[in-house]
Amino acid sequence: MTGSGAGPVVAVDVGGTSIKAGVLGASGRLSDVDRTATPAAGSDGAAVLDAVEAIVRRLAGGARPAAVGVVVPGIVDDATGVAVHAENLGWADVPLRDLLAKRLGCPVAVGHDVRAGGLAEHRAGALRGASDGVFLPVGTGIAAALILDGRVYAADGYAGEIGHVSVGHDLPCACGGRGCLEAIASAAAVARRYAAATGTTVAGSRDVADLVRRGDPAAVAVWDDALDALAYGLSMLTGLLAPSVVAIGGGLGESADLVLRPLAGRLAARLTFQRPPRIVAAELGDRAGCVGAGLLARELVA
Amino acid sequence: MTGSGAGPVVAVDVGGTSIKAGVLGASGRLSDVDRTATPAAGSDGAAVLDAVEAIVRRLAGGARPAAVGVVVPGIVDDATGVAVHAENLGWADVPLRDLLAKRLGCPVAVGHDVRAGGLAEHRAGALRGASDGVFLPVGTGIAAALILDGRVYAADGYAGEIGHVSVGHDLPCACGGRGCLEAIASAAAVARRYAAATGTTVAGSRDVADLVRRGDPAAVAVWDDALDALAYGLSMLTGLLAPSVVAIGGGLGESADLVLRPLAGRLAARLTFQRPPRIVAAELGDRAGCVGAGLLARELVA
Protein backbone atom coordinates (compact mmCIF):
# COMPACT_ATOMS: atom_id res chain seq x y z
CA MET A 1 0.00 0.00 0.00
CA THR A 2 1.11 3.55 -0.70
CA GLY A 3 0.90 6.38 1.81
CA SER A 4 -2.30 8.01 2.99
CA GLY A 5 -3.93 10.32 0.49
CA ALA A 6 -2.38 8.64 -2.56
CA GLY A 7 -5.30 6.29 -3.23
CA PRO A 8 -8.84 6.95 -4.39
CA VAL A 9 -11.96 7.93 -2.48
CA VAL A 10 -14.23 4.88 -2.31
CA ALA A 11 -18.00 4.91 -1.72
CA VAL A 12 -19.92 1.90 -0.45
CA ASP A 13 -23.68 1.40 0.02
CA VAL A 14 -24.43 -1.71 2.07
CA GLY A 15 -27.96 -2.91 1.36
CA GLY A 16 -29.91 -5.89 2.62
CA THR A 17 -29.39 -7.81 -0.62
CA SER A 18 -26.44 -6.18 -2.39
CA ILE A 19 -23.41 -4.02 -1.67
CA LYS A 20 -22.92 -1.24 -4.22
CA ALA A 21 -19.59 0.49 -4.44
CA GLY A 22 -17.72 2.93 -6.63
CA VAL A 23 -14.70 5.16 -6.88
CA LEU A 24 -14.82 8.95 -6.99
CA GLY A 25 -12.95 10.43 -9.92
CA ALA A 26 -10.91 13.64 -9.75
CA SER A 27 -14.03 15.58 -10.81
CA GLY A 28 -15.87 14.18 -7.81
CA ARG A 29 -18.11 12.03 -9.98
CA LEU A 30 -18.77 8.43 -9.03
CA SER A 31 -17.55 5.63 -11.30
CA ASP A 32 -19.84 2.89 -12.55
CA VAL A 33 -21.31 1.10 -9.56
CA ASP A 34 -19.91 -2.32 -8.66
CA ARG A 35 -22.46 -4.75 -7.17
CA THR A 36 -21.82 -7.73 -4.86
CA ALA A 37 -24.30 -9.89 -2.95
CA THR A 38 -24.50 -9.03 0.76
CA PRO A 39 -23.29 -11.97 2.89
CA ALA A 40 -25.47 -13.22 5.72
CA ALA A 41 -24.22 -11.63 8.93
CA GLY A 42 -24.25 -12.18 12.66
CA SER A 43 -24.80 -9.44 15.16
CA ASP A 44 -21.12 -8.45 15.19
CA GLY A 45 -21.29 -7.68 11.49
CA ALA A 46 -17.99 -9.45 10.80
CA ALA A 47 -19.01 -11.10 7.52
CA VAL A 48 -20.29 -7.83 6.10
CA LEU A 49 -17.17 -6.03 7.33
CA ASP A 50 -15.02 -8.64 5.57
CA ALA A 51 -16.99 -8.11 2.36
CA VAL A 52 -16.76 -4.29 2.57
CA GLU A 53 -13.01 -4.49 3.23
CA ALA A 54 -12.47 -6.80 0.26
CA ILE A 55 -14.53 -4.58 -2.07
CA VAL A 56 -12.69 -1.41 -1.00
CA ARG A 57 -9.26 -3.07 -1.44
CA ARG A 58 -10.25 -4.33 -4.88
CA LEU A 59 -11.58 -0.93 -6.03
CA ALA A 60 -8.55 0.87 -4.58
CA GLY A 61 -6.33 -1.35 -6.70
CA GLY A 62 -3.70 -1.93 -4.05
CA ALA A 63 -3.42 1.71 -2.97
CA ARG A 64 -4.45 2.86 0.48
CA PRO A 65 -7.72 4.77 -0.06
CA ALA A 66 -7.67 8.49 0.66
CA ALA A 67 -11.02 8.06 2.38
CA VAL A 68 -13.96 5.68 2.43
CA GLY A 69 -17.65 6.47 2.84
CA VAL A 70 -19.96 3.65 3.90
CA VAL A 71 -23.72 3.94 4.20
CA VAL A 72 -25.95 1.34 5.80
CA PRO A 73 -29.66 0.89 6.55
CA GLY A 74 -31.37 0.93 9.93
CA ILE A 75 -30.62 3.27 12.81
CA VAL A 76 -27.20 4.82 12.27
CA ASP A 77 -25.55 7.49 14.38
CA ASP A 78 -23.67 9.47 11.75
CA ALA A 79 -21.76 11.43 14.38
CA THR A 80 -20.20 8.37 16.05
CA GLY A 81 -20.29 6.03 13.05
CA VAL A 82 -22.14 3.35 15.02
CA ALA A 83 -24.71 1.09 13.34
CA VAL A 84 -27.17 1.09 16.23
CA HIS A 85 -29.71 -1.28 14.73
CA ALA A 86 -30.10 -2.94 11.33
CA GLU A 87 -32.75 -5.62 11.19
CA ASN A 88 -31.75 -6.95 7.76
CA LEU A 89 -28.04 -7.15 8.57
CA GLY A 90 -28.43 -8.49 12.11
CA TRP A 91 -26.44 -5.55 13.49
CA ALA A 92 -26.70 -4.07 16.96
CA ASP A 93 -24.35 -1.31 18.13
CA VAL A 94 -21.56 -2.12 15.67
CA PRO A 95 -18.86 0.61 15.80
CA LEU A 96 -18.60 0.48 12.04
CA ARG A 97 -16.51 3.60 11.47
CA ASP A 98 -13.78 2.67 13.91
CA LEU A 99 -13.65 -0.99 12.85
CA LEU A 100 -13.34 -0.12 9.17
CA ALA A 101 -10.85 2.70 9.74
CA LYS A 102 -8.62 0.24 11.57
CA ARG A 103 -8.92 -2.44 8.88
CA LEU A 104 -8.40 -0.02 5.97
CA GLY A 105 -5.91 2.37 7.55
CA CYS A 106 -7.71 5.45 6.25
CA PRO A 107 -10.41 7.88 7.39
CA VAL A 108 -13.91 6.40 7.14
CA ALA A 109 -17.27 8.19 7.22
CA VAL A 110 -20.34 6.17 8.13
CA GLY A 111 -23.83 7.32 7.31
CA HIS A 112 -27.39 6.19 6.72
CA ASP A 113 -28.34 4.94 3.27
CA VAL A 114 -31.50 6.99 2.91
CA ARG A 115 -30.11 10.19 4.46
CA ALA A 116 -27.03 9.87 2.26
CA GLY A 117 -29.31 9.38 -0.73
CA GLY A 118 -31.19 12.52 0.30
CA LEU A 119 -27.92 14.42 0.56
CA ALA A 120 -27.03 13.22 -2.96
CA GLU A 121 -30.45 14.21 -4.36
CA HIS A 122 -30.03 17.61 -2.68
CA ARG A 123 -26.55 18.23 -4.05
CA ALA A 124 -26.99 16.71 -7.49
CA GLY A 125 -30.54 15.48 -8.04
CA ALA A 126 -34.22 16.24 -7.65
CA LEU A 127 -33.89 18.31 -4.46
CA ARG A 128 -31.24 20.66 -5.86
CA GLY A 129 -31.79 24.19 -4.63
CA ALA A 130 -34.55 23.27 -2.16
CA SER A 131 -34.18 24.75 1.30
CA ASP A 132 -36.68 22.24 2.69
CA GLY A 133 -37.06 19.00 0.78
CA VAL A 134 -37.73 15.32 1.37
CA PHE A 135 -36.27 12.26 -0.38
CA LEU A 136 -38.76 9.42 -0.05
CA PRO A 137 -37.57 6.09 -1.43
CA VAL A 138 -40.46 3.63 -1.54
CA GLY A 139 -38.82 0.27 -1.93
CA THR A 140 -38.54 -2.81 0.29
CA GLY A 141 -39.24 -0.37 3.10
CA ILE A 142 -40.12 3.32 3.35
CA ALA A 143 -38.00 5.96 5.07
CA ALA A 144 -37.55 9.64 4.44
CA ALA A 145 -34.44 11.79 4.30
CA LEU A 146 -35.32 15.23 5.63
CA ILE A 147 -33.44 18.25 4.28
CA LEU A 148 -34.45 21.10 6.58
CA ASP A 149 -33.08 24.61 6.23
CA GLY A 150 -30.61 23.16 3.73
CA ARG A 151 -29.16 20.51 6.04
CA VAL A 152 -29.82 16.79 6.51
CA TYR A 153 -31.71 16.29 9.77
CA ALA A 154 -30.70 13.08 11.59
CA ALA A 155 -31.83 13.19 15.26
CA ASP A 156 -29.01 10.83 16.26
CA GLY A 157 -30.14 8.47 13.51
CA TYR A 158 -33.83 8.24 14.46
CA ALA A 159 -35.27 10.81 12.05
CA GLY A 160 -37.38 10.11 8.98
CA GLU A 161 -39.04 6.84 9.98
CA ILE A 162 -42.28 7.65 8.18
CA GLY A 163 -42.59 4.01 7.09
CA HIS A 164 -43.57 3.07 10.62
CA VAL A 165 -46.12 5.76 11.35
CA SER A 166 -49.69 4.44 11.41
CA VAL A 167 -51.89 5.36 8.48
CA GLY A 168 -54.94 3.79 10.05
CA HIS A 169 -55.18 0.28 8.56
CA ASP A 170 -54.96 -2.95 10.53
CA LEU A 171 -52.21 -4.88 8.72
CA PRO A 172 -49.23 -6.10 10.75
CA CYS A 173 -45.75 -4.76 9.99
CA ALA A 174 -42.33 -6.39 10.21
CA CYS A 175 -41.44 -3.87 12.94
CA GLY A 176 -43.97 -5.50 15.25
CA GLY A 177 -46.50 -2.71 14.92
CA ARG A 178 -49.78 -2.44 13.06
CA GLY A 179 -51.03 0.09 10.55
CA CYS A 180 -47.57 1.15 9.37
CA LEU A 181 -47.30 3.01 6.07
CA GLU A 182 -44.64 0.53 4.95
CA ALA A 183 -46.97 -2.45 5.44
CA ILE A 184 -49.38 -1.21 2.76
CA ALA A 185 -47.45 1.16 0.52
CA SER A 186 -43.89 -0.10 0.09
CA ALA A 187 -43.03 -1.60 -3.28
CA ALA A 188 -42.67 -4.94 -1.49
CA ALA A 189 -46.10 -4.58 0.15
CA VAL A 190 -47.74 -3.78 -3.16
CA ALA A 191 -46.32 -6.95 -4.74
CA ARG A 192 -47.13 -9.04 -1.66
CA ARG A 193 -50.69 -7.77 -1.36
CA TYR A 194 -51.39 -8.35 -5.05
CA ALA A 195 -50.15 -11.93 -4.70
CA ALA A 196 -52.25 -12.45 -1.57
CA ALA A 197 -55.37 -11.06 -3.25
CA THR A 198 -55.05 -13.06 -6.47
CA GLY A 199 -52.88 -16.08 -5.73
CA THR A 200 -50.60 -14.87 -8.56
CA THR A 201 -47.01 -14.24 -7.56
CA VAL A 202 -45.37 -11.17 -9.13
CA ALA A 203 -41.71 -10.21 -9.21
CA GLY A 204 -42.26 -6.72 -7.83
CA SER A 205 -44.28 -3.54 -7.84
CA ARG A 206 -43.37 -2.91 -11.49
CA ASP A 207 -45.40 -5.97 -12.49
CA VAL A 208 -48.33 -4.68 -10.45
CA ALA A 209 -47.95 -1.30 -12.19
CA ASP A 210 -48.16 -3.03 -15.57
CA LEU A 211 -51.35 -4.76 -14.44
CA VAL A 212 -52.75 -1.41 -13.27
CA ARG A 213 -52.12 0.03 -16.74
CA ARG A 214 -54.08 -2.89 -18.21
CA GLY A 215 -56.97 -2.25 -15.81
CA ASP A 216 -56.59 -5.38 -13.65
CA PRO A 217 -59.09 -4.70 -10.82
CA ALA A 218 -57.07 -6.41 -8.07
CA ALA A 219 -53.95 -4.51 -9.09
CA VAL A 220 -55.89 -1.22 -9.19
CA ALA A 221 -57.27 -1.87 -5.70
CA VAL A 222 -53.83 -2.63 -4.25
CA TRP A 223 -52.31 0.39 -6.00
CA ASP A 224 -55.11 2.66 -4.75
CA ASP A 225 -54.55 1.51 -1.19
CA ALA A 226 -50.83 2.28 -1.52
CA LEU A 227 -51.45 5.75 -2.97
CA ASP A 228 -54.06 6.60 -0.32
CA ALA A 229 -51.66 5.55 2.42
CA LEU A 230 -48.77 7.48 0.86
CA ALA A 231 -50.99 10.56 0.58
CA TYR A 232 -51.84 10.21 4.26
CA GLY A 233 -48.15 9.92 5.13
CA LEU A 234 -47.33 12.92 2.96
CA SER A 235 -50.09 14.92 4.67
CA MET A 236 -48.24 14.36 7.97
CA LEU A 237 -44.96 15.47 6.39
CA THR A 238 -46.67 18.49 4.87
CA GLY A 239 -48.42 19.55 8.06
CA LEU A 240 -45.34 19.17 10.23
CA LEU A 241 -42.50 20.17 7.91
CA ALA A 242 -44.03 21.82 4.83
CA PRO A 243 -41.21 20.83 2.47
CA SER A 244 -41.30 22.62 -0.88
CA VAL A 245 -40.54 19.39 -2.74
CA VAL A 246 -40.78 15.63 -2.16
CA ALA A 247 -38.72 13.35 -4.43
CA ILE A 248 -40.12 9.82 -4.68
CA GLY A 249 -37.56 7.09 -5.31
CA GLY A 250 -37.25 3.36 -4.84
CA GLY A 251 -39.15 0.66 -6.69
CA LEU A 252 -42.47 2.51 -6.66
CA GLY A 253 -40.76 5.65 -7.94
CA GLU A 254 -39.89 3.73 -11.13
CA SER A 255 -43.58 3.80 -12.05
CA ALA A 256 -43.70 7.61 -11.89
CA ASP A 257 -46.65 7.92 -14.28
CA LEU A 258 -48.82 5.98 -11.83
CA VAL A 259 -47.49 7.68 -8.74
CA LEU A 260 -46.60 11.37 -9.01
CA ARG A 261 -49.81 12.98 -10.27
CA PRO A 262 -52.24 10.65 -8.47
CA LEU A 263 -50.32 11.22 -5.25
CA ALA A 264 -50.34 15.00 -5.65
CA GLY A 265 -54.10 14.91 -6.22
CA ARG A 266 -54.80 12.73 -3.21
CA LEU A 267 -52.54 14.84 -1.03
CA ALA A 268 -54.24 18.06 -2.13
CA ALA A 269 -57.60 16.55 -1.17
CA ARG A 270 -56.28 16.05 2.37
CA LEU A 271 -55.03 19.61 2.85
CA THR A 272 -56.86 22.83 3.62
CA PHE A 273 -54.55 25.81 4.33
CA GLN A 274 -51.24 23.91 4.32
CA ARG A 275 -48.66 24.44 1.58
CA PRO A 276 -48.47 21.38 -0.69
CA PRO A 277 -45.04 20.25 -1.85
CA ARG A 278 -44.18 19.58 -5.47
CA ILE A 279 -44.04 15.80 -5.88
CA VAL A 280 -41.32 14.76 -8.31
CA ALA A 281 -39.33 11.67 -9.26
CA ALA A 282 -35.95 11.19 -7.61
CA GLU A 283 -33.17 11.48 -10.16
CA LEU A 284 -30.29 9.31 -8.99
CA GLY A 285 -32.07 5.96 -8.95
CA ASP A 286 -30.45 3.21 -6.87
CA ARG A 287 -27.10 5.02 -7.09
CA ALA A 288 -28.32 7.70 -4.66
CA GLY A 289 -26.96 6.02 -1.54
CA CYS A 290 -23.59 5.35 -3.14
CA VAL A 291 -23.31 8.92 -4.43
CA GLY A 292 -24.15 10.09 -0.91
CA ALA A 293 -21.48 7.81 0.57
CA GLY A 294 -19.01 9.43 -1.81
CA LEU A 295 -20.06 12.91 -0.64
CA LEU A 296 -19.54 11.88 2.99
CA ALA A 297 -16.09 10.46 2.18
CA ARG A 298 -15.12 13.55 0.22
CA GLU A 299 -15.81 15.75 3.25
CA LEU A 300 -13.04 13.84 5.05
CA VAL A 301 -10.40 14.86 2.53
CA ALA A 302 -11.72 18.31 1.55
CA MET B 1 -40.09 60.92 21.89
CA THR B 2 -36.39 60.64 22.56
CA GLY B 3 -33.84 59.32 20.10
CA SER B 4 -33.57 55.76 18.90
CA GLY B 5 -32.09 53.32 21.39
CA ALA B 6 -33.00 55.38 24.45
CA GLY B 7 -36.29 53.61 25.11
CA PRO B 8 -37.09 50.11 26.28
CA VAL B 9 -37.42 46.86 24.33
CA VAL B 10 -41.13 45.99 24.18
CA ALA B 11 -42.58 42.53 23.59
CA VAL B 12 -46.13 41.95 22.32
CA ASP B 13 -48.07 38.70 21.86
CA VAL B 14 -51.24 39.24 19.83
CA GLY B 15 -53.72 36.47 20.55
CA GLY B 16 -57.24 35.86 19.30
CA THR B 17 -58.78 37.11 22.55
CA SER B 18 -56.10 39.17 24.30
CA ILE B 19 -52.95 41.10 23.57
CA LYS B 20 -50.18 40.45 26.11
CA ALA B 21 -47.27 42.83 26.33
CA GLY B 22 -44.28 43.56 28.50
CA VAL B 23 -41.04 45.46 28.75
CA LEU B 24 -37.59 43.84 28.85
CA GLY B 25 -35.49 44.96 31.76
CA ALA B 26 -31.75 45.56 31.59
CA SER B 27 -31.19 41.95 32.66
CA GLY B 28 -33.20 40.78 29.65
CA ARG B 29 -36.07 39.61 31.84
CA LEU B 30 -39.63 40.41 30.91
CA SER B 31 -41.71 42.66 33.18
CA ASP B 32 -45.14 41.64 34.41
CA VAL B 33 -47.38 41.00 31.43
CA ASP B 34 -49.95 43.64 30.55
CA ARG B 35 -53.20 42.27 29.07
CA THR B 36 -55.69 44.02 26.77
CA ALA B 37 -58.66 42.60 24.86
CA THR B 38 -57.97 42.06 21.17
CA PRO B 39 -60.20 44.31 19.04
CA ALA B 40 -62.22 42.80 16.21
CA ALA B 41 -60.27 43.29 13.01
CA GLY B 42 -60.82 43.49 9.25
CA SER B 43 -58.52 41.91 6.74
CA ASP B 44 -56.17 44.91 6.71
CA GLY B 45 -55.52 44.46 10.42
CA ALA B 46 -55.84 48.19 11.10
CA ALA B 47 -57.76 47.90 14.39
CA VAL B 48 -55.23 45.44 15.81
CA LEU B 49 -52.35 47.59 14.56
CA ASP B 50 -53.90 50.61 16.33
CA ALA B 51 -54.16 48.59 19.53
CA VAL B 52 -50.58 47.30 19.33
CA GLU B 53 -49.28 50.81 18.65
CA ALA B 54 -51.17 52.23 21.65
CA ILE B 55 -49.94 49.47 23.97
CA VAL B 56 -46.32 49.90 22.89
CA ARG B 57 -46.47 53.69 23.34
CA ARG B 58 -48.01 53.28 26.78
CA LEU B 59 -45.41 50.72 27.92
CA ALA B 60 -42.56 52.78 26.47
CA GLY B 61 -43.73 55.69 28.59
CA GLY B 62 -43.21 58.35 25.96
CA ALA B 63 -39.76 57.17 24.87
CA ARG B 64 -39.12 55.77 21.42
CA PRO B 65 -38.65 52.00 21.94
CA ALA B 66 -35.21 50.59 21.21
CA ALA B 67 -36.94 47.69 19.47
CA VAL B 68 -40.29 45.92 19.43
CA GLY B 69 -41.04 42.22 19.02
CA VAL B 70 -44.54 41.21 17.97
CA VAL B 71 -45.76 37.64 17.67
CA VAL B 72 -49.04 36.64 16.08
CA PRO B 73 -50.93 33.42 15.35
CA GLY B 74 -51.58 31.82 11.98
CA ILE B 75 -49.16 31.57 9.08
CA VAL B 76 -46.38 34.10 9.60
CA ASP B 77 -43.29 34.55 7.49
CA ASP B 78 -40.71 35.49 10.11
CA ALA B 79 -38.16 36.46 7.47
CA THR B 80 -40.36 39.09 5.82
CA GLY B 81 -42.53 39.95 8.81
CA VAL B 82 -45.73 39.32 6.86
CA ALA B 83 -48.81 37.86 8.54
CA VAL B 84 -49.80 35.61 5.67
CA HIS B 85 -52.98 34.21 7.18
CA ALA B 86 -54.64 34.49 10.58
CA GLU B 87 -58.17 33.13 10.73
CA ASN B 88 -58.97 34.56 14.18
CA LEU B 89 -57.70 38.06 13.35
CA GLY B 90 -59.07 38.21 9.82
CA TRP B 91 -55.60 38.89 8.43
CA ALA B 92 -54.36 38.07 4.96
CA ASP B 93 -50.91 39.13 3.76
CA VAL B 94 -50.53 42.02 6.22
CA PRO B 95 -46.95 43.43 6.07
CA LEU B 96 -46.95 43.71 9.84
CA ARG B 97 -43.27 44.41 10.41
CA ASP B 98 -43.05 47.27 7.95
CA LEU B 99 -46.35 48.84 9.03
CA LEU B 100 -45.41 48.79 12.72
CA ALA B 101 -41.84 49.95 12.13
CA LYS B 102 -43.23 52.98 10.29
CA ARG B 103 -45.79 53.75 13.01
CA LEU B 104 -43.36 53.30 15.90
CA GLY B 105 -40.18 54.64 14.33
CA CYS B 106 -38.06 51.75 15.62
CA PRO B 107 -36.89 48.32 14.46
CA VAL B 108 -39.63 45.68 14.72
CA ALA B 109 -39.32 41.89 14.63
CA VAL B 110 -42.39 39.87 13.74
CA GLY B 111 -42.72 36.20 14.56
CA HIS B 112 -45.17 33.39 15.15
CA ASP B 113 -46.67 33.03 18.61
CA VAL B 114 -46.04 29.31 18.97
CA ARG B 115 -42.57 29.31 17.40
CA ALA B 116 -41.62 32.27 19.60
CA GLY B 117 -42.96 30.37 22.59
CA GLY B 118 -40.84 27.40 21.56
CA LEU B 119 -37.80 29.64 21.29
CA ALA B 120 -38.51 30.93 24.80
CA GLU B 121 -38.97 27.41 26.21
CA HIS B 122 -35.71 26.43 24.52
CA ARG B 123 -33.74 29.37 25.88
CA ALA B 124 -35.30 29.57 29.32
CA GLY B 125 -37.82 26.81 29.90
CA ALA B 126 -38.61 23.13 29.51
CA LEU B 127 -36.60 22.61 26.31
CA ARG B 128 -33.38 24.11 27.69
CA GLY B 129 -30.37 22.17 26.45
CA ALA B 130 -32.34 20.02 23.99
CA SER B 131 -30.84 19.75 20.53
CA ASP B 132 -34.15 18.47 19.16
CA GLY B 133 -37.27 19.42 21.08
CA VAL B 134 -40.91 20.28 20.49
CA PHE B 135 -43.11 22.85 22.25
CA LEU B 136 -46.71 21.70 21.94
CA PRO B 137 -49.28 24.13 23.32
CA VAL B 138 -52.68 22.46 23.45
CA GLY B 139 -55.11 25.33 23.85
CA THR B 140 -57.82 26.80 21.63
CA GLY B 141 -55.89 25.18 18.81
CA ILE B 142 -52.87 22.91 18.56
CA ALA B 143 -49.61 23.77 16.82
CA ALA B 144 -46.04 22.70 17.43
CA ALA B 145 -42.83 24.69 17.56
CA LEU B 146 -40.03 22.50 16.24
CA ILE B 147 -36.52 23.03 17.57
CA LEU B 148 -34.32 20.95 15.26
CA ASP B 149 -30.56 20.80 15.60
CA GLY B 150 -30.89 23.64 18.09
CA ARG B 151 -32.74 26.03 15.78
CA VAL B 152 -36.40 26.92 15.33
CA TYR B 153 -37.63 25.38 12.08
CA ALA B 154 -40.18 27.59 10.25
CA ALA B 155 -40.55 26.49 6.59
CA ASP B 156 -41.60 30.02 5.60
CA GLY B 157 -44.19 29.94 8.36
CA TYR B 158 -45.87 26.66 7.41
CA ALA B 159 -44.09 24.31 9.82
CA GLY B 160 -45.56 22.66 12.89
CA GLU B 161 -49.23 22.45 11.91
CA ILE B 162 -49.78 19.17 13.72
CA GLY B 163 -53.24 20.34 14.83
CA HIS B 164 -54.50 19.80 11.30
CA VAL B 165 -53.08 16.38 10.56
CA SER B 166 -55.72 13.66 10.53
CA VAL B 167 -55.74 11.27 13.47
CA GLY B 168 -58.42 9.11 11.91
CA HIS B 169 -61.73 10.31 13.39
CA ASP B 170 -64.59 11.80 11.45
CA LEU B 171 -65.25 15.10 13.26
CA PRO B 172 -65.18 18.32 11.21
CA CYS B 173 -62.55 20.96 11.95
CA ALA B 174 -62.66 24.75 11.73
CA CYS B 175 -60.02 24.54 8.99
CA GLY B 176 -62.53 22.86 6.69
CA GLY B 177 -60.99 19.44 7.02
CA ARG B 178 -62.05 16.32 8.90
CA GLY B 179 -60.23 14.17 11.41
CA CYS B 180 -57.86 16.92 12.57
CA LEU B 181 -56.04 16.43 15.87
CA GLU B 182 -57.24 19.87 16.98
CA ALA B 183 -60.90 18.93 16.51
CA ILE B 184 -60.73 16.24 19.19
CA ALA B 185 -57.78 17.05 21.42
CA SER B 186 -57.48 20.82 21.84
CA ALA B 187 -58.50 22.22 25.21
CA ALA B 188 -61.41 23.88 23.43
CA ALA B 189 -62.47 20.60 21.80
CA VAL B 190 -62.40 18.79 25.13
CA ALA B 191 -64.72 21.36 26.70
CA ARG B 192 -66.96 21.45 23.63
CA ARG B 193 -67.24 17.68 23.34
CA TYR B 194 -68.04 17.29 27.03
CA ALA B 195 -70.82 19.86 26.70
CA ALA B 196 -72.15 18.13 23.58
CA ALA B 197 -72.13 14.72 25.28
CA THR B 198 -73.82 15.83 28.50
CA GLY B 199 -75.71 19.03 27.75
CA THR B 200 -73.68 20.64 30.56
CA THR B 201 -71.66 23.68 29.56
CA VAL B 202 -68.18 23.93 31.09
CA ALA B 203 -65.83 26.91 31.16
CA GLY B 204 -62.87 25.00 29.79
CA SER B 205 -60.76 21.87 29.80
CA ARG B 206 -59.79 22.45 33.44
CA ASP B 207 -63.42 21.83 34.45
CA VAL B 208 -63.42 18.62 32.43
CA ALA B 209 -60.17 17.60 34.14
CA ASP B 210 -61.84 18.13 37.55
CA LEU B 211 -64.70 15.89 36.43
CA VAL B 212 -62.20 13.26 35.26
CA ARG B 213 -60.63 13.28 38.73
CA ARG B 214 -64.07 12.67 40.21
CA GLY B 215 -64.66 9.75 37.82
CA ASP B 216 -67.37 11.35 35.68
CA PRO B 217 -67.76 8.79 32.84
CA ALA B 218 -68.54 11.30 30.09
CA ALA B 219 -65.51 13.40 31.08
CA VAL B 220 -63.30 10.31 31.19
CA ALA B 221 -64.47 9.30 27.70
CA VAL B 222 -63.79 12.74 26.23
CA TRP B 223 -60.39 12.93 27.96
CA ASP B 224 -59.45 9.45 26.73
CA ASP B 225 -60.29 10.42 23.16
CA ALA B 226 -58.09 13.50 23.47
CA LEU B 227 -55.16 11.56 24.92
CA ASP B 228 -55.44 8.82 22.27
CA ALA B 229 -55.45 11.44 19.53
CA LEU B 230 -52.51 13.31 21.07
CA ALA B 231 -50.58 10.04 21.36
CA TYR B 232 -51.27 9.39 17.67
CA GLY B 233 -50.05 12.88 16.80
CA LEU B 234 -46.96 12.43 18.95
CA SER B 235 -46.24 9.11 17.25
CA MET B 236 -46.03 11.01 13.94
CA LEU B 237 -43.69 13.58 15.50
CA THR B 238 -41.60 10.81 17.02
CA GLY B 239 -41.36 8.77 13.84
CA LEU B 240 -40.47 11.73 11.67
CA LEU B 241 -38.40 13.93 13.96
CA ALA B 242 -37.49 11.88 17.04
CA PRO B 243 -37.26 14.88 19.40
CA SER B 244 -35.65 14.08 22.73
CA VAL B 245 -38.29 16.08 24.61
CA VAL B 246 -41.83 17.36 24.04
CA ALA B 247 -43.09 20.16 26.30
CA ILE B 248 -46.87 20.30 26.58
CA GLY B 249 -48.34 23.75 27.19
CA GLY B 250 -51.65 25.53 26.74
CA GLY B 251 -54.87 24.87 28.60
CA LEU B 252 -54.50 21.09 28.57
CA GLY B 253 -50.94 21.40 29.86
CA GLU B 254 -52.34 22.98 33.03
CA SER B 255 -53.75 19.57 33.98
CA ALA B 256 -50.31 17.95 33.80
CA ASP B 257 -51.20 15.12 36.22
CA LEU B 258 -53.86 13.90 33.78
CA VAL B 259 -51.77 14.43 30.67
CA LEU B 260 -48.03 13.77 30.93
CA ARG B 261 -47.84 10.19 32.20
CA PRO B 262 -50.95 8.88 30.41
CA LEU B 263 -49.68 10.40 27.19
CA ALA B 264 -46.22 8.87 27.57
CA GLY B 265 -47.82 5.46 28.15
CA ARG B 266 -50.11 5.68 25.15
CA LEU B 267 -47.27 6.91 22.96
CA ALA B 268 -45.00 4.06 24.06
CA ALA B 269 -47.74 1.58 23.12
CA ARG B 270 -47.69 2.98 19.57
CA LEU B 271 -43.93 2.70 19.08
CA THR B 272 -41.72 -0.28 18.31
CA PHE B 273 -38.06 0.65 17.59
CA GLN B 274 -38.47 4.43 17.59
CA ARG B 275 -36.95 6.60 20.30
CA PRO B 276 -39.66 8.00 22.58
CA PRO B 277 -39.31 11.61 23.74
CA ARG B 278 -39.56 12.67 27.35
CA ILE B 279 -42.96 14.31 27.77
CA VAL B 280 -42.83 17.24 30.18
CA ALA B 281 -44.84 20.30 31.14
CA ALA B 282 -43.94 23.58 29.49
CA GLU B 283 -42.55 26.02 32.03
CA LEU B 284 -43.39 29.52 30.86
CA GLY B 285 -47.18 29.23 30.83
CA ASP B 286 -49.06 31.79 28.77
CA ARG B 287 -46.06 34.14 28.97
CA ALA B 288 -44.09 31.95 26.54
CA GLY B 289 -45.11 33.86 23.40
CA CYS B 290 -44.38 37.21 25.00
CA VAL B 291 -40.99 36.07 26.29
CA GLY B 292 -40.27 34.82 22.77
CA ALA B 293 -41.31 38.18 21.29
CA GLY B 294 -38.83 39.80 23.66
CA LEU B 295 -36.07 37.46 22.48
CA LEU B 296 -36.81 38.33 18.85
CA ALA B 297 -36.73 42.06 19.66
CA ARG B 298 -33.51 41.73 21.60
CA GLU B 299 -31.79 40.23 18.57
CA LEU B 300 -32.44 43.53 16.77
CA VAL B 301 -30.45 45.53 19.30
CA ALA B 302 -27.80 42.95 20.26
UniProtKB/TrEMBL annotation, chains A, B:
Keyword Chaperone: no
Keyword Lyase: no
Gene Ontology molecular function: any one: kinase activity
InterPro entries, per the entry: ATPase_NBD, ROK
Organism: Jiangella alba
Family membership: Belongs to the ROK (NagC/XylR) family.
PANTHER family (alphabetical): BIFUNCTIONAL UDP-N-ACETYLGLUCOSAMINE 2-EPIMERASE_N-ACETYLMANNOSAMINE KINASE, ROK (REPRESSOR, ORF, KINASE) FAMILY
Keywords noted in UniProt: Kinase, Transferase
Name of this chain's protein: Glucokinase
Upper taxonomic lineage: Bacteria, Bacillati, Actinomycetota, Actinomycetes, Jiangellales
Superkingdom: Bacteria
